[in-house]
Amino acid sequence: MSNALTLVLGATGKTGRRVAARLRLRGTPVRTASRSAATPFDWSDPAGWDATLAGVGTVYVVPPAVPGPVHEFVTRAEAAGVRRLVLLSGHGADTWGDSTFGLDMRSAEDAVRGSALEWTVLRPSNFDQNFDEDLFHAPLVAGELALPAGGVGEPFIDLEDVADVAAAVLTEPGRHAGRVYELTGPRALTFAEAVELISRASGLPITSTQISPAEYTAALLDQGWDEDDARHVTEMFVLMDSGVIAGTTDDVAALLGRPPRTFEDYVVRVAAAGVWER
Ligand SMILES: NC(=O)c1ccc[n+]([C@@H]2O[C@H](COP(=O)([O-])OP(=O)(O)OC[C@H]3O[C@@H](n4cnc5c(N)ncnc54)[C@H](OP(=O)(O)O)[C@@H]3O)[C@@H](O)[C@H]2O)c1
Fold first, then answer.
1. Ligand 1 atom nearest to CA at 12
2. Which end of the chain has the least Cβ crowding within 10 Å, N or C?
3. Atom of ligand 1 nearest to the CA of 135
């Protein structure tokens, strides 16, 4: 069969590597791509995209951190004979309004949803794994997570659920065409509650502190962050604090036939691996 491959972009990242493993286990022919993956792919180098897309029928799209490139990528995908696109976006992307947060994901949605291909958009909440594989890991190991977040909860989702959904959608042509799935965990937790659960399960003293958005941006800049990135992450907290993305949905349960994993489930699994120890 022509164009039988499923291309996984961002294949070395948190979702991509989980999605690729699930597809391989199902026997789906997979091509994994990123700047450092088996197949080279760089969002800033369109000259290399056609080779990456050769023989591909379905693409899992982890968008770039800047708005724009996905439009040209979709054009190239159409020309290469790709039939389906499954895009990773963010929870409630159509409610972010005037916020400057997520212009990258919103641009990617415009490109994918405007294409002639069969498309599906996955919009997960903040990942549980931000606490051990990303932004919040180092502060937790240092013993204090200071964020511009207070009483508004976030329905953190386990990346194992995001990957289960992505693998199902990627391997069920037709069924998810033109659908936007809002993927959340089973309940919203404040960051203080999340840190308390991590502290208890790991047996380590970890505190959470609420700071202002300006203090958070300043702290990131002190750590050597690029100014745009620091403002972007701060904007995410301002958006969360507004409450527009705090709600849970039933989409994970409807797609997988079981409830989403709990934050407690994530915490005991990760605490047992010792990743929050100093
Ligand atoms: N973190 C959250 O809570 C959350 C929630 C909802 C949505 N999202 C969205 O999820 C996406 C990130 O997904 P993720 O967490 O799976 O990824 P990730 O762990 O942040 O890893 C990024 C992946 O993209 C690749 N990459 C980076 N720059 C690239 C470039 N210039 N060209 C090609 N590939 C590049 C990286 O590999 P190389 O370095 O090898 O290129 C890596 O595989 C973002 O769009 C984010 O907005 C995140």
1. 43
2. N
3. 1
37 Cβ inside 6 Å of ligand 1 = yes
CB 82 within 8 A of CB 3: yes
For ligand 1, atom 15, the nearest C-alpha belongs to: 14
Atom of ligand 1 nearest to the CA of 15: 16
Q: Are 118 and 58 in contact, with CB atoms under 8 Å apart? A: no
Q: CB of 96 closer than 6 A to ligand 1? A: no
Evaluate whether residue 76 is within a structural domain.
Answer: yes
Is 32's C-beta closer than 6 angstroms to any atom of ligand 1? no
pLDDT tens for 72-109 read: 999 999 999 999 999 999 999 999 999 999 999 999 99
What would the pLDDT profile of 46-76 be if each residue is shown by its tens digit? 999 999 999 999 999 999 999 999 999 999 9
Residue 49: the pLDDT is 98
Query: Structure tokens of 65?
Result: 């951190």
Confirm whether 211 is domain-assigned.
no
Type of residue numbered 222 = D
Which residue from 158, 204, 203 is spatially nearest to 183, judged by alpha carbons?
Answer: 158
83 touches 109 (CB < 8 A): no
Q: Is there a domain that residue 165 lies in?
A: yes
Whether 267 and 201 have beta carbons less than 8 Å apart is answered as: yes
pTM here? Answer: 0.98
Integer distance in angstroms from the first to the last C-alpha of the chain?
A: 52
Q: Which domain holds residue 251?
A: 5-125+157-184+247-261
Among 88, 69, 71, 80, residue whose Cα is nearest residue 8: 88
CATH number of the domain where residue 109 is located:
3.40.50.720
Alpha carbon nearest to ligand 1 atom 45, residue: 63
C-beta 39 within 6 A of ligand 1: no
In a domain, 65, yes or no: yes
